[in-house]
Amino acid sequence: MDPRGQRLSEVLFVLCLLLGITLGVWRAASSDDVRQVLRWYMASAAAGLLLCVPDWPMYNRQALPWQPCQRVAAEKLEAVAAEIRLDPALKTD
Question: Which residues form the signal peptide (predicted)?
Answer without folding.
Answer: 1-24
